[in-house]
Amino acid sequence: MEKDKKLISFLITHYNRPFDLMECIEAIKKINISNYEIVVCDDGSEDRNIKLLQGYEIDKLILAKVNQGLAANLNKGIEACDGAYIIYCQEDFVLDPKVSNVLQECFDLLENKKVDMVRFTSNCQFNKLITLTANISLIPKFSFRNFLLNYYQYSDHPFVTTKKFYENYGYYLENTSGRYGETEYAIRILKSNAKIGISNKKLASTIIGSQSVLVYESIYEAKEYKINKKVIIIARAFRLYLELILYNKYKRGLATYKNFRKL
């Protein structure tokens, strides 16, 4: 490795949640590692919040004049990272200090092309995983045991990867609302040959009480439907498989989802 090159770039995306961001940064500082940089990419936050950020221990603070959405914010942040590895973390997550115990396994797997990305947490539990190391497993590209969950192999929850991942599989689709963009990218990854790993134990968690910015993206109020939760999960899975069939990686876009950012 080059003498001045950082081993890890911690990339944190931020929008008007400065106190969550502080918790996120403090958690990183508790990890037993050195030779890293903290890169914060802000997506047009209010001036009062920017002033707070400018007082934080941040190596690189990338600012946007206007809010451009999570995808654009991520893309700018990735370009600004100089580390051999990128650990991505939204500002409403904190990394567990024990993540340092698995990083070398992650790096080895990435270098040996056994995985292209390793996730540190998931909201769902995969029924089928393939053991890679003592602490890391591979999410199968497709498994009938994961039939309702295959789509969820990619998530914008905390993970480690390299810039090469984006050169190979594409950057994030800009000018989209958060949910639309994440879904499009998840379909893109599912249809690719990207290998996604996950830590056997959760090594990241959401900050208690943090309010997701996604709730403000839709002009429609959330409606409550009295439908069995299992039915919703099954219907969503088939909807995503339909998206997978219809997906064109060159045109990029979803057939059954609405991009609220264009409204």
UniProtKB/TrEMBL annotation:
InterPro entries: Glyco_trans_2-like (IPR001173)
Protein name: Glycosyltransferase family 2 protein
Any Pfam family hit: Glycos_transf_2
Occurrences of domain Glycosyltransferase 2-like (ranges): 9-127
Highest taxon, organism lineage: Bacteria
